[in-house]
């Protein structure tokens, strides 16, 4: 599966953005989907994940209550709605896909998109 992330940009603290990740292939609905982010000089970290049917979600503690992951299998797309953004959310955001159940571990994801930059100004 090929993944294409979009929707990044510059936003003021407290604002919102919605990221999208479009997937190619007819098996999108069978994959667990995740979002990760990488800030300059830091390791790539888990943000959120959603099960193949959209029912089960995981979030990192740093975004819980502010970000929402969702998917539309009819459109082969996964979303990350980001609200109440903070300067520390500034990073390149990546979508990823894996077979099997949800995971926080980036090494368990098989496919990655190219990333989209989110910059939050204070």
Can you walk me through this structure?
Strands 2, 4, 5, 6, 9, 10 and 11 form a seven-stranded mixed beta sheet that branches. A four-stranded antiparallel beta sheet has the order 1-3-8-7, with no helix packed on it. The termini are far apart. The protein is mainly beta. The protein is built from no helices and eleven strands. It is globular and about 40 Å long.
pLDDT < 50 stretches: none
How many helices? Answer: 0
Structural class: mainly beta
Span of the ends, CA to CA:
37 Å
The secondary-structure element order is: EEEEEEEEEEE
| Rounded mean pLDDT score | 96
Q: Tell me how many strands there are.
A: 11
CA radius of gyration: 13 Å
Q: Characterize the overall form.
A: globular
């Amino acid at each position: 599966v090929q993944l294409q992330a979009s929707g990044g940009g510059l936003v003021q603290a407290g604002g919102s953005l919605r990221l999208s990740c479009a997937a190619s292939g007819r098996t999108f609905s069978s994959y667990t989907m995740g979002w990760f982010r990488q800030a300059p000089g830091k390791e790539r970290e888990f943000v959120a994940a959603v099960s193949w049917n959209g029912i089960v979600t995981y979030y990192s503690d740093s975004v819980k209550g502010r970000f929402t992951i969702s998917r539309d299998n009819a459109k082969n797309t996964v979303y990350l709605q980001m609200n109440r953004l903070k300067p520390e959310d500034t990073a390149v955001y990546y979508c990823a896909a894996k077979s099997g159940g949800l995971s926080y571990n980036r090494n368990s994801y098989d496919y990655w998109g190219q990333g989209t930059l989110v910059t939050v100004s204070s």
